[in-house]
TrEMBL record:
It comes from Centaurea solstitialis (yellow star-thistle). GO terms for molecular function: zinc ion binding. Residues 35-63 form the C2H2-type domain. Keywords: Cytoplasm, Metal-binding, Nucleus, Zinc, Zinc-finger. This is C2H2-type domain-containing protein. InterPro entries: MBS1/2-like, ZNF706/At2g23090_sf, Znf_C2H2_type. One of its GO terms (cellular component) is nucleus. Residues 1-19 have a biased composition (Basic and acidic residues).
């Protein structure tokens, strides 16, 4: 029954492979989102996204300067 042994080995290898890749992305997301909108407190990745956010969500407001 060589096929049965191969199947068991393949299942074991897949389980090991899937176990390593599992994890939460909350920490990575928190590190990536560094800019916060002072009006609505939305978290954004960079100043360019903040400018786009202001133009779409807060069109009457003026975006803050790029200096942090």
């Amino acid at each position: 029954m060589t096929r049965g042994k191969q199947k068991i080995e393949a299942q074991r290898k897949n389980a090991e492979k899937n176990q390593k890749s599992k994890g939460s992305q909350f920490e990575a997301r928190a590190v990536a989102l560094k800019v916060i909108c002072p009006i609505c407190k939305a978290q954004l990745a960079n100043q360019n996204q903040l400018g786009d956010h202001y133009s779409s969500k807060h069109p009457k407001e003026k975006p803050p300067s790029n200096s942090e």
